[in-house]
Amino acid sequence: MHRDLVERRGWISEERFLHALNYCMLLPGPEAQQLAIYIGWLLHGARGGVVAGVFFVLPSVFVLLLLSYIYVAYGQVPAVAGVLAGVKSVVVAIVVEAVLRIGRRALKRSEHVLIAGASFLLIYFLHVPFPLIVLGAGIVGLLDSHPATRLRTGRDASPGSQEQRFFVARVLIICLILWSVPFVLLITVLGWDSVYAQLYRFFTVAAFVTFGGAYAVLAYVTQAAESYGWLTHAQAVDGLALAETTPGPLIMVLQFVGFMAGWSRAENVAPLTSAVMAALVTTYTTFLPSFMFVLVGAPYIERLRDNARLTAVLSGITAAVVGVVLNLALVFGLAVIWPYGVAAGPDWFAVVLCIVAAFLLFSHALEVWWVILLGGLFGLGREVV
């Protein structure tokens, strides 16, 4: 998004992009989609935000539904398993490259490096919940801020008007209706204890309490999903690999979680029908709150774009997210490179493929899509040979 919108198309400035990114990092839920909504709002108002948010997600909904079906129906076929193994190895390199790329933009001061390092230690070794890490990073950023608080007063900075308050109320009412009507229909027809109602409630809560995007939310969701019996940890890792191969935000891995829950707990319907219903419920409840967060909050955040204290808080939070993404890179790397534990030794095929993928990504020799494709082909080739 940064490459296309800032560098190639020049639709928004570097400063505005990073300000929007920092705000979206502060929000719970999928920051990639929230950033798309924010930029759409900047360019064309509320309608632009809705269009950008919907079409940022829509293609990956259909692609991941197809991949999820192939996984459950043919995942044990050696050729398909080989492709998945190759893709997962490449994904490790992609996540590491993402850590370095985000870190270069976010860790501009020594204080930011310390925040990132502390967040990694807290979440990896002490398993401190990510919301507490976000809170602590924001407080550290605030304490480190400068006293100047100059406010922007341009034409896009009038959120306190009666018209703006009416707009906020309208957005809140519309979002409440869009959430409550499907939920009432769902529990009326299928019951409060159905897997679909469980998914609706759980992912609504997750959308409000999980920060840091897909890498931060996956551990929380996987832990809960295992307790519900929706899927195993190994399946969650496979789902992350599948989500990496789809267009759109990586948090689409949650749709895979819903698909697996519906497939394993089909209730009086065919497994595929149940899985698709559960996947769509998960996706809907995951992304709906993002429109509310951005359309309600963006005008106020734009007004405070030159507020030094707010900028310092958001920068501290962004630095903490770098540490959390590093944690997920390490956890995922261990699961892929040492699939049977460290004592059993590494999977040397995965090690070599990770190194090759990292070289191609860091040297910018190939786009990410081509690297993923090559990883799948190498995995397939190993099984065929």
Task: Provide tags for this entry.
385 residues, mainly alpha, 78% helix, globular
Structural notes for this entry:
Helix 3 (31-74) packs antiparallel against helix 12, helix 5 runs antiparallel to helix 6 and helix 8 packs parallel to helix 12 (271-303). It is globular and about 65 Å long. It is mostly helical. Residues 148-159 have low confidence and may be disordered. It has 15 helices and no strands. It has one domain (2-384).
The average pLDDT is 83
Low-confidence stretches: 148-159
Order of helices and strands: HHHHHHHHHHHHHHH
Q: What is the 3D shape?
A: globular
For the termini, the CA-CA separation is 39 Å
Q: Provide a count of the helices.
A: 15
Q: Main beta sheet: strand number and arrangement?
A: none
Taking all Cα atoms into account, the compactness measure Rg is 21 Å
Please give the domain count. Answer: 1
Helix content: over 70%
- The percent range for strand residues is under 5%
Total DSSP E strands: 0
Class per helix and strand makeup = mainly alpha
Gist of the model:
78% of the residues lie in helices and 0% in strands. It has 15 helices and no strands.
Chart the SSEs and their pairings:
Elements: H1 2-8, H2 14-26, H3 31-74, H4 78-106, H5 110-124, H6 130-143, H7 162-190, H8 195-209, H9 213-228, H10 233-244, H11 253-264, H12 271-303, H13 308-337, H14 348-362, H15 368-384
Helix pairs in contact: 2-3, 2-12, 2-13, 3-11, 3-12, 4-10, 4-13, 4-14, 4-15, 5-6, 5-13, 6-13, 7-12, 8-12, 9-11, 10-11, 11-12, 14-15
